[in-house]
Every structure is written in structure tokens, then in C-alpha cells.
Amino acid sequence: MKKWLSLLVAAGFALSFSAFGADAPAKKAPTAQQQKMTACNAEAKTKDLKGDERKAFMKECLSTKKAATQQDKMKSCNADAKTKNLAGDARKAFMKECLSGKAA
To answer: How far, in Å, CA of 43 to CA of 26, rounded?
Structure first.
């Protein structure tokens, strides 16, 4: 009887701990600055920039305040899709959303 009771208590603890894990908060969507940083990093990586050249590029990329042209958006979205290893319908959906300028 004591074995069953202790087994039942142990099972109760195990189930209660697994229930807490299911309530973990969802990941927050990245801010505009974080998205810009990701895009600039991806572009610097595709250009294979290193050292001072990369620093200068990142400074320019992150400080640019002009509105992005469609060509710039396309480059940025392509770089993001490549870093996320997207293909097929997932890539097509991502590109559509990215180029439309909607938040993810």
C-alpha cells in the first residue's frame, strides 16, 4: 500500500512539472531594429565582409534612414529567407509578407 501511495505521489509531481513547462511564454516578435540588424548581418555575410570593411558596412546599413526602395527590400528579404533556409511555399509566403512591409 505504501509503495502505491508513494508511486502515486511521484506521478502527481511529474505531471504537475510537465504542465508548468507547457505554459512557457511564446517568443516575442523581433522589433524593427532587430529585423534591420538581422537583414544587415545577412547582407554582410552574403558579401563575405570581414573586419573593418564589415564594421563600416554595418554602420552604414544600420544608420540609413532613407525609405527602402523595392530593390533594397528584395535584397533584404532574400537574405533573410536564405538565413532562415526557407524553400518552396514557406519561402514564397515569407517573401510576400516581407515585401509587403507587414510585421511578422
So the answer is: 28
Per-residue pLDDT of the chain (104 residues; tens, 9 = 90+): 666 666 556 666 666 655 555 555 667 877 878 888 888 888 888 889 899 999 988 888 888 665 567 788 888 888 888 889 999 999 999 988 888 876 44
Q: What nine digits make up the cell of 79?
A: 537574405
**How many C-beta neighbours within 10 Å does residue 1 have?**
5
Q: Where in the chain are the domains?
A: 32-100
Question: Taking the alpha carbons of 30, 34, 39, 45 in that order, is the dihedral positive or negative?
Answer: negative
| Grid cell for residue 25 | 511564454
